[in-house]
Amino acid sequence: MHPRWRRILLTTLWIALLSAAGVRAMEAAEGKISLKDYVPVGFNFLGKFEIDLNDLEAIGSMTEEEYAAAKIPDDIKELDGKKVCIPAYMLPVVFADGGVTEFLGMASTTSCCYGVEPKLTEIIAVRMTKGSTQSLMDSPLFLFGTLRVGPVVDDGFVTAIYSMECDKVSW
């Protein structure tokens, strides 16, 4: 099975599982997180469009950030500020408080293990809102938090299109 179809199938199954468990509450570090408070979203939706920052002719006189922002479809922009649950893989970036406080939520593990460059729309810059979470690379996870839609800029370069203020990571 082609890796893209496998990823779409797994994402669809995760979202179906998440939706079926809609009223079940999960334990969080402080209290409970109810699944019904989060919109299930997958990378098959988030990654449905392309942003090619190497296409200098298309970018023209815009900055990378302006170009990337202009390419985001309206139905995806509507998710900005919404509480979502996204199935993803973790690539830890910052360790503190006995665990991971910042990481990249990725559509697949191929960029980590096989050096395949992920699309900008297949990366979420994640920051834990309270404390840290366990480092769980190569395991499918659910990220619960507030999604921000818009270019993530680091040192003047667009590094992602999504960021998340993460309330909980579940597996």
Structure commentary:
By secondary structure, this protein is an alpha+beta fold. The protein has one domain: Protein of unknown function (DUF3299) (OB fold (Dihydrolipoamide Acetyltransferase, E2P)). The chain contains six helices and eight strands; from the N terminus they run αβββααααββαβββ. The protein has helices spanning 3-20, 43-46, 56-59, 64-71, 74-77, 110-113, and strands at residues 25-27, 32-34, 39-40, 83-96, 99-106, 123-128, 141-154, 157-170. The chain has a five-stranded mixed barrel. A hairpin with a 2-residue loop joins β7 (141-154) and β8. The two termini are 24 Å apart.
Keyphrases for this structure?
171 residues; alpha+beta; OB fold (Dihydrolipoamide Acetyltransferase, E2P); 5-stranded mixed β-barrel; two-stranded antiparallel sheet; 8 strands; 37% strand; globular; DUF3299 domain-containing protein; DUF3299
Task: Characterize this entry briefly.
This protein is an alpha+beta fold and 171 residues long. It is 25% helix and 37% strand. The protein contains 6 helices and 8 strands; from the N terminus they run αβββααααββαβββ.
The percentage helix is 10-25%
Q: Report Rg.
A: 16 Å
If you consult CATH, what is the topology? OB fold (Dihydrolipoamide Acetyltransferase, E2P)
Tally of contiguous helical segments: 6
Which percent range describes the beta-strand content?
A: 35-45%
Number of domains: 1
Gap between N and C termini: 24 Å
Largest sheet, described in full? 5 strands, mixed, barrel
Form type: globular
What's the CATH first level?
Answer: Mainly Beta
The chain-level structural class is alpha+beta
Q: Provide the residue-averaged pLDDT.
A: 85
Oligomeric assembly:
single chain
Named at the architecture level, the CATH assignment is Beta Barrel
CATH level 4 superfamily: Protein of unknown function (DUF3299)
The secondary-structure element order is HEEEHHHHEEHEEE
- Side-by-side strand order of the widest sheet: 4-5-6-8-7
Please report the total strand number as a whole number.
8
Low-confidence stretches: 17-31
Protein name: DUF3299 domain-containing protein
Organism: Synoicihabitans lomoniglobus
